[in-house]
């Protein structure tokens, strides 16, 4: 049954992304504002999240929204645990400010979805360029943060299996220090219901815990990232203790 429900949800997303993407491209050609383009893209992401509740039996449980900045001009770097595709849809849908993802340019080649995100004011990079790619992240990231857009990054770089810890990279912390903004750590337990490398989803709750802001002032990038990692991984063990107990026993 989970497989059938997963097929239906995938079909729903595949069908709905086409008109949303085409509408977004038309609005862009007509000179639509960045704010309008983002709202249109966010609407489809919210649709994907909301449809997962009746179709897959998956719903989010979100705590810590009061930890987010309330000043509309305040930039922040969100450092999020990455276990599945679910949180990439969820974060723009729940955040009160526009988000900019840092993503690899290969995603731009995906029909409709890639064309749509290429129309948005986000940061796509060529990872093969190394330091030049990260210089682009710093340059564009500072610009977006100064405008009040929040930059979201997955410090482990890729989706991590349930109960495991990836290698945290300090790029997000470096951007925060360079731009003079805080970071906000986020723990997500999406692998319980939407594990990586498995098509069928399982009904259940995705816990999302938004941590307190961590000031970047006076810290090195390694110190700042270590503080964020410590909070995220401690919170992950609180939210999903069974997964981490299992990984310890292996």
Keywords:
250 residues, seven-stranded mixed sheet, alpha/beta, single chain
What does this protein look like?
- The chain is of the alpha/beta class and 250 residues long.
- It has eight helices and seven strands; from the N terminus they run ααββαβαβαβαββαα.
- The protein has helices at 2-29, 34-56, 86-94, 113-118, 131-146, 171-179, 221-239, 241-249, and strands spanning 58-63, 77-80, 99-104, 123-125, 150-153, 183-188, 204-210.
- Strands 1-7-6-2-5-3-4 form a seven-stranded mixed beta sheet, sandwiched between helices.
- The chain starts with a helix and ends with a helix.
- The relative contact order is 0.16.
Q: Structural class, from helix and strand content?
A: alpha/beta
What sort of overall outline do the alpha carbons produce when their principal axes are compared? Answer: globular
Quote the average pLDDT.
91
Percent helix: 40-55%
| Distance N to C terminus | 30 Å
Please state the CA-atom Rg, rounded to the nearest Å: 18 Å
Give, in spatial order, the strands making up the sheet with the most strands.
Answer: 1-7-6-2-5-3-4
Count of DSSP-assigned helices: 8
The largest β sheet comes out as:
7 strands, mixed
- What string gives the helices and strands in order? HHEEHEHEHEHEEHH
Low-confidence stretches: none
SS elements, strand count: 7
Beta-strand percentage?
Answer: 5-15%
What's the structural blueprint in terms of helices and strands?
Elements: H1 2-29, H2 34-56, E1 58-63, E2 77-80, H3 86-94, E3 99-104, H4 113-118, E4 123-125, H5 131-146, E5 150-153, H6 171-179, E6 183-188, E7 204-210, H7 221-239, H8 241-249
Parallel strand pairs: 1-7, 2-5, 2-6, 3-4, 3-5
Antiparallel strand pairs: 6-7
Helix pairs in contact: 1-2, 2-3, 5-6, 6-7, 7-8
